Amino acid sequence: LCQIENIFLSCTFLPNEEFVGLEHIIGTVNTALVHPREVFKGAILNNAASVIIVHNHPSGDVNPSDADIQITQRLKEAGKILGIELLDHIILGFSGAYYSMSVQGQL
Predict the structure, then answer these.
(1) Full DSSP string of the chain
(2) What is the pTM of this model?
(3) Pairing label, strands 19-26, 7-13
(4) How far is CA 7 from the centre of its chain?
(5) What is the pLDDT of residues 65-89, one digit of tens each?
(6) pLDDT tens, residue by residue, 94-107
(7) Could you tell me how far CA 58 lies from the centroid of its own chain?
(8) Which residues, at least 6 apart from 9, have a Cβ–Cβ distance to it below 8 Å?
(9) Residue 84, CB half-sphere, CA atoms under 13 Å: how many?
């Protein structure tokens, strides 16, 4: 039985929208334990202005869980304190399916 890990990425961007870094956090089959310090570490070190958070759902279902919504709000608030804007939180599924919290008005 093949199990896909839950992978969480934080992409960081300079004020001119230049991509400058990627933080990679590996979770378990059904969860990725995410803390703002890991998500914003690369952004802080690179003097970034914004981040985009991306993670996969091993189930293939791209709909956000309650935990996804809660961590998004927590990261948004942490970003405000740090002066680093959370541009989007994207959930990836199978066959190119995705869910953008920004597009869905959840940021």
Answers:
(1) ---PPPEEEEEEE-TT--EEEEEEEE--SS-----HHHHHHHHHHTT-SEEEEEEE-TTS--SPPHHHHHHHHHHHHHHHHHT-EEEEEEEE-STT-EEETTTTT--
(2) 0.79
(3) antiparallel
(4) 10
(5) 898 899 899 999 999 999 999 999 9
(6) 888 999 999 999 88
(7) 15
(8) 22, 23, 24, 25, 53, 54, 55
(9) 25
